[in-house]
Amino acid sequence: MGKPYASVLIDTYNHEKFIEQAIVSVLEQDFPASEREILVVDDGSTDRTPEIVRKFAPQVRYLPKKNGGQASAFNAGIPECQGDVVSFLDGDDWWVKEKLETILPVFRANPDIGAVGHGCLMVDAEGVLQSTIVPDKTYRLSLKSVAEARLFTQLRPFFGTSKVAYRKSILDRVLPVPEGAIIEADEFLFTAAPCLADVIALEQPLFYYRLHAGNQFMMQAMDERGQRRKFNSLKCLLEHLPPKMRSLGAPEWIVETVLEPLSLEVEMMRLQLDGGSRRDMWRAERAAYRLDYKSRPLGYRIFKQFSLLMALAVPPRRFFQLKRWYATSGMRSLRKYIGEPAGAAPIVGEMPGK
Questions:
Q1: HEC-encoded secondary structure of the chain
Q2: Where in the chain is the domain with CATH 3.90.550.10?
Q3: Mean pLDDT of the chain
Q4: Is the pLDDT reported for residue 314 higher than 60?
Q5: Fold for the domain defined by 6-212
């Protein structure tokens, strides 16, 4: 077999219920098998995942390792990829059949781009569609100005693990990922990559993101241990990304602009988990309000001023309890009457629970 054009890297950990569907979705791609390879990095699974993956040999190369988290899985798997393009897939997600035949021609037609991302189909644990989330159009994104960098930050959700493919030459320059990023390691890759080349976000939804009790989305929403794990991973990224971006040629004003949402997320999580001053809470809430919305009806602006006053009136942890109550009590439906703000990000669709 000659050198493949595309490598598919699947990272997995205890995905015995889902890993077969992930692998089959790659094997059934409308793309020549002779032009791609499939590698599965197993981050120390203790269930039947190894047994299931090995069934697919020799079509699938199995790379077991000691449990260490997503960053360590990327650091182990990416150097093993032989393709010019590396496309990622989490072991509990799966691709639409046209995924590779859609993204790989984009790389061939644009030899100067470094990565291609796209939208997703959100499904529940049984595979029932919950929502479709896509950019409002296809974008070519760069870090050549503050405005372009801000647009990239708004569209960065479309470069998460199962949504993205990179040129291998870009990944070789970005590695290693700091291994303290037990989760969210994909953010290191998709934040550093645009320092080297433009990236493209396609408006098509090309994979299924599964919401279930074991994945990070649900843990962050329900479990404090999951929140703490995310917080520590994001703190690690915030420590390591600035020097990496500078080493790849990004000027300081680009570093600050691109990392502003990450810095704010870390601060919000610190206040939620560990508490802090009410003034810090007010500043963080005001900054999030500025970043999240591009237009705000008068009624919503009045409501938000009340919310900001509450941030000053109660301790941060209590403030987050009130926010959760607002989100789960049905009070959010009041926006129909006071006015719904328009999000700053050019995105069609919405995450469940937002």
A1: CCCCCEEEEEEECCCCCCHHHHHHHHHCCCCCHHHEEEEEEEECCCCCHHHHHHCCCCCEEEEEECCCCHHHHHHHHHHHCCCCEEEEEECCCEECCCHHHHHHHHHHHCCCEEEEEEEEEEECCCCCEEEEEEECCCEEECCCCHHHHHHHHHHHHHHCHHHEEEEHHHHHHHCCCCCCCCCCHHHHHHHHHHHCCEEEEEEEEEEEEECCCCCHHHHHHHCHHHHHHHHHHHHHHHHHHHHHHHHCCCCHHHHHHHHHHHHHHHHHHHHHHHCCCHHHHHHHHHHHHHHHEEECCHHHHHHHHHHHHHHHHCCHHHHHHHHHHHHHCCHHHHHHHHCCCEECCCEECCCCCC
A2: 6-212
A3: 93
A4: yes
A5: Spore Coat Polysaccharide Biosynthesis Protein SpsA; Chain A (3.90.550)
pLDDT digits (tens, 9 = 90+) for 14-53: 999 999 999 999 999 999 999 999 999 999 999 999 999 9
- The first and second tokens of residue 25, run together, are 């979705």
6-12/85-90 β-pairing: parallel
Q: What is the pTM of this model?
A: 0.93
Which residue in the block uniquely carries the two structure tokens 């991973």? 233
- Binned at pLDDT 50, 70 and 90, residue 220 comes out as very low
At 87-112, the pLDDT tens digits run 999 999 999 999 999 999 999 999 99
Work out whether strand 6-12 and strand 36-43 pair parallel, antiparallel, or are unpaired. Answer: parallel
